C-alpha cells in the first residue's frame, strides 16, 4: 500500500521528469506517482484506501482519455472530494468547458518554458496539497 | 242585324205603299164625296136663292101696287134682273140629278108664270088701275103660284138635304176608314220604325263601342309606336355602346343595316336603313377571310343553323378591324332571311395580341430564367461540392490544429523546458560558444512556439461563434493604444478620431484593433517622426474604420496577399511577427460581415481599412 500525495496521469515521460524536478524543490517533497493512462489511474485509485491529495490529469491519453477518467471519478462518491486539476497543453475552449462541466477543480495549461512550468507545478501543489494538510 | 233593318224598311215601305194606295183611293173618293156635298150644298143654296128672288119680286110688286111708288119696285127689279140667271145656274147644278131634272122644267114654268102675273099687276098699277091689280092679287092667283114655287123648292131642298145627309154619312165613314187605315199604317210604321230604330240604335251603340275600342286601340297603337321608337333608340344606343351592328339579309341578296353597322364598316351613316346589295358587305371583308365568312353564311342559309365567325374587314380609310359575326336564319313573309350581328372586337384582339406578345416575351424570359436557374443550380451544386470540400479541408485543418496543439507542443515543450534546465542549471558547464548555441536553440523553439500559438488562434477563430454587442470603440481603442505604446516602446504619436459605437464581438474586435495598431507601430518605428492616425467614416450601411501610418508601406502588387496565413512582406523581414495577424484580422472582420483591405506605397506608409455593418 503506497502513500501517494499526488497522482499524475501523464503519458509523456519528459513531462513527468519535469514535474518531478519541480517537486524536488519543495520541502517536504510530496509523495508523487505517475501513471501512463486513464485505465491505470482508475485501477490504482480503486485499490487505494486513502485517496491521493491531488490528481493531475492530462487529457490526451492512451486507452482511457482524461475526460473519461473525470467522468468515472465524479460518478463515484468516494472520489468526490478528490481535487482534480486538468494539466494539459490544450488551449481549446471546448476542452476547458468540458473539463469543468465533468467536475474538474481547475484547468492549467502546461507552460512551455521550464521556469514557468516548475512555478506552475509548485503553485498547484502548494494550493491544493497545502490545503489538504489542514484536514 | 243589317238584314233585319233592311227587312224592317222593306216592310215599312210596302206597308206605306199599301196604306198610301188605300188612303189615296179613299181620299179620292172622299174628295169626290165632299165635292158632291158641296154641290148639294150649292144646290140647296141656289134653290134658296131662287126662292128668295121669287119672294123679293112678289114683295116689291106688292109694295108698288099698294103704294104705287116706284121705289118699292127695286127688289122686284133686282129679282127680275137675276132670277133667270140664277135659275140657269140652278139648272146647271141640279140637272145631273134625275130627281131635280124632273122638276126643273116645272119650276121654270112656275117662275115664269109668277113673273107674268106680277108684270100684269104692275102694268095695271102703272096704268092707274091699281084696283084691278089689287083685285088680281086678292084673287090669290099670285099667291098660289108662289106657294107652288115654295113647295117645289122645299121638295127639291128636302131631297137635296137628304142627299147631303147621306153624303155626309158617307164622308164620315170614308174619313173614319181613312183614319183607321192611317192609324193602322202609323201603328205598323211606328212599330217598324221602332224596330228599325232599336236595331239601328243597337248598331250605333255597337259602332260607338267599336269606335271607342278602335280609338283605344289607336291610342295603344300610338303609344306602342312611340314605345317602339324609344326601344329602337335604345337598341341603337345599346349597339353603339356595345360596338355592335346588325343587319337583315334577304334571299335576294339585299340587306338593311343599323347605323352602328355602317359606323363599324366606316360607311356613310345616311345610307343606313336602306336596302343595299350584299356585295357591299362582302367587298369589305379581308381577302383572306372572305371564303370563311361566305361559307359560314351559305351554310347557315342552307342548313338553317346559326353561325359565328371571327374575321377582319378593311375600312374605306384603309384601317383594319376585327369583327365577331353571328347570325341565324328566320322565316319572314314566307321568305328566309338571315339576321346577323357584327361586334367590333378590334380592341380585344389587339389586347390579346399584346398579351400574346407579352406571353411570348414572358416565355422567352422564362426560358432564360430557367436556363439561368439551371446554371445557378449547377453553380449551386458546384458550390455545395466546393463547400463540402472546404468543409472537409476545414475539418482536416481542425484535426491538424488539434494535433499540433498537443503533438507538436509536447516535444517543443521538452526542447524549451530541458533547454531551460540546461541554461539554468548547467550554464557553468558550457563555454561561451556552447551558451550561444543553446540560446539559438531556445530562441528558435520560442519562435516555433509563437507560430504554433498563432496558428492555433487562427484555427480557433474559424470555430468560434461571433457574439455581437454594442461596443464603445473610443474607449476600447484608447486602452489598446496605451497598451501597444507601452509594449512596443514605440515613439509614435497616435492620433485617434471619434469612433463611436459599433455592433461587434468585443474580444474579437479588440484583437483586430490590437493587430492593426501593433503592425502600424511596428512598421513606422523606423521613421524619424512616426505618426499613426486612427478614425472612421460612417456610410449608409456600414462604418469604415482605418489605421494609417507613415511607415515602410508596401508594394501595392502584394496588397491582395497581405491577409493570407504566413504571408509576410519582404519589407517586414527583420521585424517581429508570425505572419498570421492580418489573416486573423481578415477572418474576424469577415465573420462580422465586414470587409478588410489595405492601401499603400513602398516607403510611403500604409492604411488598413475594415468595415463593420451598422446593424447587428
Architecture overview:
Chain A: The modification 4-aspartylphosphate is found at residue 58. The complex is a heterodimer of chains A (135) and B (616). By secondary structure, chain A is an alpha/beta fold. Chain A has one domain (6-134): Rossmann fold (3-Layer(aba) Sandwich), CATH 3.40.50.2300. Chain A has helices at 13-24, 38-47, 66-74, 93-101, 114-134; strands spanning 6-9, 32-35, 54-57, 84-88, 106-109. In chain A, strand 4, helix 4 (93-101) and strand 5 form a beta-alpha-beta unit. The longest helix of chain A is centred in the last third of the chain and has 21 residues, at 114-134. By secondary structure, chain B is of the alpha+beta class. Chain B has four domains: 2-201, Four Helix Bundle (Hemerythrin (Met), subunit A) (Up-down Bundle), CATH 1.20.120; 243-344, PAS domain (Beta-Lactamase, 2-Layer Sandwich), CATH 3.30.450; 351-463; 466-613, Histidine kinase-like ATPase, C-terminal domain (Heat Shock Protein 90). Chain B is 67% helix and 14% strand. In chain B, the strands form three sheets. In chain B, strands 3-2-1-6-5-4 form a six-stranded antiparallel sheet, with helices on both faces. In chain B, strands 8-10-11-13-12 form a five-stranded mixed sheet. In chain B, strands 7-9 form a two-stranded antiparallel sheet. Chain B is rod-shaped, with a radius of gyration of 84 Å. The mean pLDDT of chain B is 85. The chains are: A alpha/beta (135), B alpha+beta (616). Chains A and B meet through helix 1 and helix 5 of A and helix 9 and helix 10 of B.
Give a topology summary.
The complex is a heterodimer of chains A (135) and B (616).
Chain A: E1 6-9, H1 13-24, E2 32-35, H2 38-47, E3 54-57, H3 66-74, E4 84-88, H4 93-101, E5 106-109, H5 114-134
Parallel strand pairs in A: 1-2, 1-3, 3-4, 4-5
Helix pairs in contact in A: 1-5, 2-3
Chain B: H1 2-67, H2 74-94, H3 98-126, H4 130-138, H5 141-242, E1 244-249, E2 254-257, H6 259-265, E3 276-277, H7 279-284, H8 287-303, E4 307-314, E5 320-332, E6 335-344, H9 346-425, H10 432-463, E7 469-472, H11 473-487, E8 493-496, E9 501-504, H12 506-524, E10 531-538, E11 542-549, H13 581-591, E12 596-600, E13 606-613
